[in-house]
# Entry
Amino acid sequence: MVVLTSCPLDRLCLLSNRSIQLQTLKHNNTLKTIGHILLFLLFAFSVQAQTKTEVILLGTGTPYPDPSASGPATVVKVGDRVFLFDAGAGVMRKVNAAGLPLSGPEAVFFTHLHSDHTLGYADLILTTWIMRRTKALQAYGPHGLKSMTRHLLLAFAEDIDIRTKGLEREVPGGYRVDVHEITEGVVYERDGVRVTAIVVPHGSWKEAYGYRVDTPDRSIVISGDTAPSKNLMAASQGVDVLVHEVYLSRGVKVEDRPGGEFWPEYMRKFHTSELELGSLANLAKPKLLLLTHIIRFGGTDEEIISGIRKAGFTGDVIAGTDLGRY
# Structure
């Protein structure tokens, strides 16, 4: 009886095939792993893009009509969501220049009702409507905002009537505003964004607020107009960005005009000097101190920042400019 044995070459081929199969399997598993990693990274980047927070200074000006600095207006942008703080003159032009939606913000928050902070309010109401806003604008601010809103809509009643009933056929009711008159504390909280109102001293104004904005990735405080405020500094402890007004102290003097003798007192009670801000920021220690509403009195940004340094703040300081992104 003859016993047939396997050919060595057949065994070699079998081993070779098994080796190739194992290598192919490993290769496929590697590709799958790489694919999973890429999908995870794409998802992570997508989530990050949806929640990334950015501060945009639309307007850094004061009541003085400086062509290079529009009226006070600051945006906190969280992914695609836009939150506006104050609406000074020229606000919608700057919204467009910044590439933000012309249909308006998710909400607007007013620090106080001084004209330089509200002159763009009618622009915000009506231009966003003309640009196809269909929902009521959500507006938050001190008591008096309801009255201001009502009177603005009355002032533009003829315009609204023509645009609604004429050939333009704008969205009926798209100009509406839901006004929320606020007090201190959390005034807005939705989908990971919380806005807290902080009472600040602004001279003879009965109500003036700063705001703290907390988002999934950053914390931001916006001072509005204020004299040195312990409330504001307490709310600003260790924040990512403190957006604060400032004036150059050496420029304050009695002015040669009716009422000019009260100017130094006015500045002390209504605003914050570079030395006061430096001292307060040194206590709060924000990661970035961003200057806006800068009253230079003929001085320079470098001089103001130097004063902030002399008062003790050693962190990052930037003199903000219109359309700056931080």
User: Anything to note?
Assistant: The chain has one domain: 50-325. The chain has a mean pLDDT of 91. The CA atoms of residues 151 and 157 lie 10 Å apart.
